[in-house]
Amino acid sequence: MHGxxxxxxxxxxxxxxxxAVRVYRHDGGPLDDAWLFGVLDRxxxxxxxxVAPDTTGYRLVHGEADGLPGVRIDxxxxxxxxxxxxxxxxxxxxxxxxxxxxxxxxxSVRLCYxxxxxxxxxxxxxxxxxxxxxxxxxxPRSDVAVRENGIVYQVRIGGxxxxxLYADLRDVRRWFAPMMAGRRVLNTFAFTGAFSVASLVxxxxxxxxxxLSEESLDRAEANVVAxxxxxxxxxxxxxxxxxxxDRFRRTGETFDAIVLDPPAFSRTxxxxxxxxxxxxxxxxxxxxxxxxxxxxxxxxxxxxELSPRNYRGLVEEGFRKAGREGREILWATQGPDFPSSTxxxxxxxxxxxxxxx
Length: 357
Ligand SMILES: C[S@@+](CC[C@H](N)C(=O)[O-])C[C@H]1O[C@@H](n2cnc3c(N)ncnc32)[C@H](O)[C@@H]1O
Known about the structure:
With about 350 residues, the chain is an alpha/beta fold. It is about 30% helix and about 25% strand. It binds S-adenosylmethionine (SAM).
């Protein structure tokens, strides 16, 4: 890439989507192994510092924050999953695999894609090429047990890029769990139950996981058992969060802590549509109506396009709607293995707030 007067601006890979060029170097040098190994060694050195020894599932490379736009690598106990945001980054993959094999000796390396939903034309064009590919080894025959601060979670390497554990919330779980000792926790949009399991390990008397997906709840129950927790302390409810919250309000059931971690968009079996942008205040208000006095509300948004200021505003609107006052006791973002660059602060996509009532 050259600027006016022939000045070298950098070296990158041309992309056909809404990003024209993914810039990897700012000095015009080649995108060879010597450069790539340097970039990957630096990313790995950061994880050696910030990831605790009893944590075996984490993000090894986080896109542009680690100098590799469009490339993410997750490490799940000796299984590496490379996730590309764009086919344009494909020329880097062989070098990444050479580095993984040389430096980390993975049992398997899988390549998959997560294209931006706005790039619909390209998604349609790419078709089968987007199916996951095994570049080293074979798909593990069963779920892989990873540890997070000593707690066991089972991840499914061969399925969707979301293997079943959102490692970016690890530090939030570690902060939250010990406060749950002796308390009743309601974990909505629970997915594979990570917050429920962490709370139960932290001593929660009971955790209730709510999700629309029966399969995810089965996995939540498996995670409970994998940690030697008495399954009677965990209840899985396959239902819509709003319906469950409304039912608890009518029956007068309350919880000492409620976790809200909804997706950006979803549709229930009854055809109701949840849209994070529109429905956050309604969700917060519904949760507050079943939160016990001195209870904690933990609310998570992973929507990068929602600014922290606007997100906080939506939550505060929910408090007003419910006629309750809250005190913010935590404001956090993703963990340190999901860094954001000083030149790209928008990369701080995760917003986590915790309020006491
Ligand atoms: C972002 S994930 C939640 C991640 C989870 N909190 C964790 O820490 O692993 C969103 C989950 O919400 C579930 N979901 C979507 N719409 C729902 C609804 N209306 N009611 C209950 N669960 C829903 C999905 O099935 C999915 O498992």
